[in-house]
Amino acid sequence: MRKVIVFNRVSIDGYFTGPNGEIDWFVHDPEVDKAAHARMHPDTVLFGRVTYRMFEGYWPAVGKDGNATREERALSDELNQMTKVVFSNTLKEVTWVNSRLIKGDIPAEVRKLKQGDGPDMVIFGSGTIVEQLTKEGLIDEYMIVVTPVILGAGRPLFGSPDRINLKLLEARSFPSKNVLLHYELAGR
Fold first, then answer.
1. For the residues 59-76, what does the mean pLDDT come to?
2. What is the mean pLDDT of residues 62-75?
3. Which CATH superfamily is domain 4-185 in?
4. Other beta carbons less than 10 A from residue 140's beta carbon
5. 3-state secondary structure at position 89
6. C-alpha 98: how far from its chain's center?
7. Report field, pTM of the whole predicted structure over 0.85
8. What span, in angstroms and rounded, lies between the C-alpha atoms of 64 and 75?
9. For residues 146 and 1, what is the distance between their CA atoms, to the nearest angstrom?
10. I need a surface site. Which of 11, 60, 122, 141 has the fewest CB within 10 A?
11. Residue 160 above 80 pLDDT?
12. Nearest to residue 129, comparing CAs of 188, 185, 45?
């Protein structure tokens, strides 16, 4: 059975976007990305419409950008090769290579995807999907980067799910002052 892993950034007060959806408060740190990448090996990304459009508007071209870092170009190539499953009832089509659009019941579709063999699946951003899958118990691991900022308002990553107990697998701090927390569902 395939695992679903969430990789998201949150402020100290638990928001994953600011009040207007902004993410300019992230303290980007390639070392955090490298550490997270070493702990997961997905071949599929699960996206909601908003995050898909943000990624699609940026990452496909980075691989050919001579001004991008070697790490950014490698990540662009990796994302281009991965399967991208986009959940949206409003998009008519998805055009990024290796993308497919799914409309309808997100938890039911993810249950089907998890039944197959193969590498893990990862979710970046996509708060609506994270919230729905968390409530259904379909997320196996959470990799949360806590960024040293208090936003005071914004969109919480988890909304208001029922209580879910997690087991800490690792906590690691970085010179950027980010902290990477890696959890799995308790009892697994």
1. 89
2. 88
3. Dihydrofolate Reductase, subunit A (3.40.430.10)
4. 19
5. coil
6. 18
7. yes
8. 12
9. 29
10. 60
11. no
12. 45
